[in-house]
Amino acid sequence: MSGEKERELYASWLRCLRKGRAAVLARLLESSSPDLPVGARLFIPEEGEPVGDLGEPSLNRSVIERAREKMDALYPRSETSLLSLPGGEQVQVFFDVNLPPFELMIFGAGHDAVPVARFARELGFRTTVVDPRPAYATGERFPGSRIILADRHSWEKKVTIGRRTFVLVMNHHLERDRAALRFALNSPAPYVGVLGPRSRRQRMLEALEQEGVRFDKEQLSRMYSPVGLDIGAETPEEVAISILAEILAFRSGHQGGFLREQSRSSIHQPL
């Protein structure tokens, strides 16, 4: 790779790191072929064209495909992978994955949303609070969170839910919760948690069905209600921990049970 291309590759990678954009930097670590340059790099952004060259077109294609798969996953890990080339040669490629922070979007600015937002920020989530009440949704109550003052009639214009956004519905207002549930399940959000018992969830779904709104199996599979892990939570802070523990378990592909009951040798489960 020319010096100019090398500089372009690193500049692109550093921009993604600074701006929190999804990208993969692939590096050729080992190769059974003497014709492949060990140390060569290929930068693959989520948006835009790859930069760099690993020395073999088929290897470039395989690495780009693997990188795209990683960026499409919910919580991909950086790792070294063994890849095979058409001629039988094998190579080791390290995939360095950079993702933007996950977002937790809370519909509802009640008192029990305050510890959820606080703990979520401490866990590294970008936190957004959506509520139509300016007396509740304030920077003083939710420091460090993005505040969106909006009712259900303006969500389409003011609220954007992405595929790395975890949604929590806790308005304590049946009509707003129902509207938020409809809005969230029709978005790419992978996780939609709804505060309240099963009976309340069922009432909301039945009311939406009477309005002509029906969710398919895939949409309902993203709905977590009652929300949270069963830890006997009572106080708002305990409930917040229960909810965020479930979100972390979901994001990482874990079940959230007791570690002592796990049979695997490592407590860290690779994806």
From TrEMBL:
It comes from the Bacteria. The lineage of its organism: Bacteria, Bacillati, Bacillota, Bacilli, Bacillales. Signal peptide: none annotated. Residues 16-73 form the XdhC- CoxI domain. Gene3D superfamilies: NAD(P)-binding Rossmann-like Domain (3.40.50.720). Residues 104-247 form the XdhC Rossmann domain. It comes from Planifilum fulgidum. This is Xanthine and CO dehydrogenase maturation factor, XdhC/CoxF family. It holds the Pfam family XdhC_CoxI.
